[in-house]
Design brief:
Length: about 280
C-alpha cells in the first residue's frame, strides 16, 4: 500500500520523525535497563538534575548549539546522545528511500529503531531486554497479519514473500531464526560446556524471522561473520576467549543489510557460484 504523497516529502518527514524517535531512543537506552520509568520524569541533566527545556532538547541541534554541555552547570553531555539521534534519523531515511511512501517503510523504520536501541543496550549491559524483543515480535505479528488480511505488502521486508502467504514466510522465518542458533547453542553447550550466544540473541533472531522471513538465515550468517571479525579485532594479543563482545549489534547490522538487500545478495551469490 503506497501513500499518495511525493517521495521527497515522505523521506523528509520520516527523517524528522527518525530524529525525534532518536531522542526517545536515548531515554529508553538509558532508563529501561536500569528499571526506571520511560515516561516520568522528563529529561534532566545528570550533573545538576535541572529539567532540560524543550529548546535544549532538539535532536542533534541542541547538542551542537550548547557544544556538548549543560546550559546551567556546564556538565559535559555525552556525544552518544546526538549520535544515536542522527543514526535514528538516517535509518528512518533509509527505510523511506528503500520502500517508498508506504506502510512497509514504517514497519522497516520501526524494526531499525528497535535494532538501534537493542544494540546500544547490548554494548553497555551485555543483554537484550525481553520487553523490547517481545514488543518487536508483537509488531512483527501485527505487520504479518496486516499483509495477510489486506493484501498490502507490509511484511516480510526481505523478498515479496517466497510463499503464497505472508504468515508462512513469517512462521518459517521465526522457526529458522530461533531454531538454527538454538540447536547450535545446545550443541556447543554439550561439546564445550558453554555456548557462543545467549538466549537473548536466539529470541531476537526469532523476532527478526517475522520481519525477514526465511532470509533471517542470511542475517544469522552475516551477524556471525561480522561478530567473528569483531572478536578477532577486539582481542588482538589477548587471545580470543578474553574478549567478551555482545552479539546483538552484529546481528542488528546483519538484519539491516538483509532487510535492504537480502534477496539481491542471495541471488547474486547464487549466480557467482554458478547455481542461479
Ligand atoms: Zn546541568
Amino acid at each position: 500500500m503506497s501513500f499518495p504523497i511525493p517521495g521527497w516529502y515522505f523521506s523528509l518527514s520520516m527523517t524528522l520523525f527518525g530524529l525525534l524517535f532518536g531522542s526517545f531512543a536515548n531515554v529508553v537506552i538509558w532508563r529501561l535497563p536500569r528499571g526506571e520509568s520511560i515516561a516520568h520524569p522528563g529529561s534532566h541533566c545528570p550533573g545538576c538534575d535541572a529539567p532540560i527545556a524543550w529548546y535544549d532538547n532538539i535532536p542533534v541541534v541542541s547538542w551542537l548549539v550548547l557544544r556538548g554541555r549543560c546550559r546551567l552547570c556546564s556538565e559535559p553531555i555525552s556525544l552518544r546522545y546526538p549520535l544515536v539521534e542522527a543514526a535514528s534519523g538516517a535509518l528512518f531515511l533509509v527505510a523511506a528511500l528503500v520502500w517508498g511512501p508506504s506502510v512497509r517503510a514504517i514497519f522497516g523504520a520501526a524494526l531499525f529503531w528497535f535494532l538501534l536501541v537493542l544494540s546500544m543496550i547490548d554494548v553497555e549491559h551485555m543483554r537484550l531486554p525481553n520487553p523490547l524483543v517481545g514488543t518487536l515480535a508483537i509488531l512483527g505479528v501485527v505487520g504479518v497479519s496486516m499483509s495477510e488480511l489486506t493484501g498490502w505488502c507490509v511484511l516480510p521486508l526481505a523478498g515479496a514473500g517466497a510463499f503464497a502467504h505472508p504468515w508462512l514466510d513469517a512462521a518459517l522465518g521465526a522457526l529458522l531464526g530461533a531454531g538454527l542458533p538454538g540447536v547450535l547453542a545446545l550443541a556447543f553447550r554439550l561439546v564445550r560446556g558453554k555456548s557462543g550466544f545467549g538466549m537473548g540473541d536466539i529470541k531476537l533472531l526469532g523476532a527478526l524471522g517475522l520481519f525477514l522471513g526465511p532470509y533471517v538465515l542470511l542475517t544469522f550468517f552475516l551477524g556471525s561473520f561480522l561478530g567473528a571479525v569483531g572478536a578477532i579485532v577486539a582481542s588482538r594479543g589477548r587471545g580470543l576467549t578474553a574478549a567478551r563482545i555482545p552479539f546483538g549489534p552484529w546481528l542488528a547490522a546483519g538484519a539491516v543489510v538483509t532487510a535492504v538487500a537480502g534477496p539481491s545478495l542471495v541471488s547474486g551469490y547464487l549466480v557467482l557460484v554458478g547455481i542461479g
